[in-house]
Amino acid sequence: MQHPSLTNIQWQDLRALTPVEATYNVVLSFPFLLLSWYSALQSWWLIALIASFFFFTAALRQAHDCYHRTLGVSKGVTEFMLFALSVTMLCSTHAIRQTHLNHHRDPLGDSDVEGNWARLPWYQAILGGGFFSIAIQWFGLTHGSRRSRLLVIVDMLLIVTVILAALSTRHPVLLYHVLVMIVANMLVGFFAVWSVHHGCDEVVYARSERHPLINLLTFNLLYHIEHHLFPAVPTNHLPELAKRLDAEAPQWTQQPVVPPVSKLSRQPHAF
Fold first, then answer.
1. Is the Cα dihedral 194, 195, 196, 200 positive or negative?
2. Contact, 180 vs 208, CB < 8 A?
3. What is the SS3 assignment for 92?
4. DSSP string covering 116-151, please?
5. pLDDT tens for residues 79-129?
6. Residue 145 to residues 97, 98, 149, 234, Cα–Cα distance (Å)
7. What is the spatial distance between Cα 242 and Cα 247, in angstroms, rounded to a whole number?
């Protein structure tokens, strides 16, 4: 049930995507992927790592929009995208879809395997990231429908194929990509869950970022309370939704993801 403070928020007009926006959503991550591979082939490791960061972040956005059917494409193309992202990100996006939709049904509740990672101290959220990646995929595998479980199994077979290909061929680009994606999946619990839910409660259960550069670099993924309140709105239009929330119901958007520098400077230093 929608909270009474949100009844005046206009959002239905934000659901529609133009063909250009839908195309952008589909191709968003893949130029970064190609750049990371080419840079690794040339041994330009710093450029490769930067490109891999942007690939994984953009791919998170694509997968997230796929989970909510807000990519702007058909159901068939959405499923194809999830397979493509599973192969390249080396995690089962079909499994994570189940876990993530449960996160929306019970945000920060007892059954929320994803969101409850934010209850940990920040250092535990980082150090235990491998367990988080396994947990969200295992939940998706064991709680989905029969069809969903089959899709997860296909994902995992494809992922194993990629890893075996890297190990058997020892191709430097494949080895680089597998290693970097493993590290990325170990950090995703901190950056994609802890950062946007820590310190929240059962009422205002997510944070939101307003710094334009941070939102640019994270492809608008940090407009998180907006997404939770109106999950049918595509990521493309979350900045406009954020403006409407700030104007009509600012009590929902007062917790930033990245604390302002002035706030950090007032924190006592530990020696």
1. positive
2. no
3. coil
4. GGGGS-HHHHHHTHHHHHHHHHHHHHHHS-HHHHHH
5. 999 999 999 999 999 999 999 999 999 999 999 999 999 999 999 999 999
6. 12, 9, 6, 26
7. 9
What CA–CA distance (Å, rounded) separates 186 from 216? 23
DSSP strands (E only) in 53-195: none
| 208 SS3 class | strand
Decide: residue 265, CB within 10 A, 0-12 exposed, 13-18 middle, 19+ buried. Answer: exposed
The tokens 């934010």 sit on which residue? 118
For the stretch 147-162, what's the b/e string if a residue is b when 16 or more beta carbons lie within 10 angstroms of its beta carbon?
A: ebbebbeebbebbeeb
**Token pair for 259:** 């604390």
CA dist 99 and 64 (Å) reads: 12
- For 227-236, the pLDDT digits (tens) are 999 999 999 9
The residues, any chain, with a CB within 8 Å of residue 165's CB and separated by 6 or more, are 171, 174
Q: In this structure, are residues 102 and 112 in contact, taking their beta carbons and an 8 Å threshold?
A: yes
